[in-house]
Design a protein that fits this description.
Helix content is 24%, strand content 22%. By secondary structure, it is α+β, with helices and mostly antiparallel strands. Helix 8 packs antiparallel against helix 9 (324-334).
């Protein structure tokens, strides 16, 4: 029995041997192939010395191709995040590896290709099989997005890799009156971005921005419902609270882009009208009952605009109670008067 166990241990060690400089034999054809690849692509000052080895692991078959992870352990990896748009995905890595930053390769015929090269020459047309098996850290990017390569690094650099998003979209572009969207060279004043993460609070939260509110029903963080603002000219991300305070024309994310819903919209038609004021007046007079939906999740709200955040959709006046002030404030707002 001891001889059998010893034989098994020796076999395991043999299977785990990496390719070394001057080695008489290789443990696998793929490892030797990757070793030769590294010799070819690495600059002279990074080439292996006697006793150095390559590391090949996580080998898997995808669409008939051999995909593997590999790197050169004699070259210290850098703790620098790397991002690259490949097709409809942003591939991410917390470290920069060598000779290829992401350390993901495709073996095809007699050649080895980086993940990018394999995609560019058509060996891969979709990274979904790799993403589905959690082979690499990727963020799904919606079609026709222009700023993902700048927004995603800015997001992760600020918030850290622990809150990496899983999907990315650009919902709306705003151009001010002196910035024409018709010009091919025009850059939007700001972009409404969706960056959805898997981090959530335990409760639903309602955020109020002036006359509008956003229900963050799943408690997504760090941005309510994954929404934030990107300003291309500054290459800077804003959460909605700071954007609402600092960026001109930000109200258009509600008016034109349809984000959130109006406070005081009692008939749920997406607009603030006299009908909403009338419904509130009838409810206060006891002619009708406030709908159950008027209560925002039992008062699960937070203050982020410097004013008390309403417990009720009908609390347009924003004083925490439902009364005739709300109906009057709606009527004044519609008439363009201060309230």
């Amino acid at each position: 029995m001891k001889k059998i166990i010893s034989f098994v241990l020796v076999l395991v060690l043999l299977l785990g041997v990496c390719v070394t400089v001057g080695a008489a034999e290789t443990d696998t054809e793929l490892q030797q192939k990757f070793y030769n690849y590294c010799l070819e692509v690495l600059p002279e000052d990074m080439k292996p010395s006697e006793g150095d080895n390559v590391r090949v692991y996580s080998v898997k078959k995808v669409d008939g191709l051999e995909v593997f992870k590999g790197f050169c352990p004699w070259i210290e990896s850098e703790p620098t995040s790397v991002y690259k748009i490949i097709g409809d995905w942003c591939v991410c890595s917390e470290y920069t590896l060598y000779p290829y930053a992401f350390g993901i390769y495709v073996s095809g015929g007699d050649e080895i290709y980086t993940l990018e090269q394999a995609y560019e020459i058509g060996l891969f047309t979709d990274l979904k099989p790799l993403v589905a098996s959690s082979y690499c850290d990727c963020i799904a990017i919606a079609k026709n997005c222009k700023y993902a390569d700048k927004v995603i690094p800015a997001f992760v650099d600020y918030w850290g890799t622990g809150v990496s998003p899983y999907s990315y979209d650009e919902d709306y572009e705003y151009y001010s009156s002196d910035n024409s969207a018709d010009s091919s060279e025009a850059t939007p004043d700001y972009v409404l971005v969706s960056l959805r993460t898997r981090m959530h609070y335990a409760a639903s939260i309602v955020y109020r921005y002036g006359r509008y509110m956003i229900r963050n029903e799943n408690g997504m963080t760090p941005y309510p419902d994954g929404k934030c603002i990107y300003v291309p000219e500054e290459n800077k991300l804003y959460d909605l609270w700071n954007a609402y305070q600092q960026i001109e024309g930000i109200e258009n994310i509600f008016i034109e882009a349809g984000l959130g819903e109006p406070v005081g919209d009692m008939d749920e038609d997406g607009k603030l009208t006299v009908k909403d004021a009338t419904i509130i007046q009838k409810c206060i007079a006891g002619l009708e009952s406030f709908p159950l939906e008027d209560n925002l999740y039992g008062g699960s709200t937070i203050s982020i605009t410097g004013k008390f955040v309403p417990f009720y959709i009908s609390d347009f006046y924003c004083d925490g109670v439902r009364n005739v002030k709300d109906a009057t404030a709606i009527q004044k707002c519609i008439a363009g008067l201060e309230y």
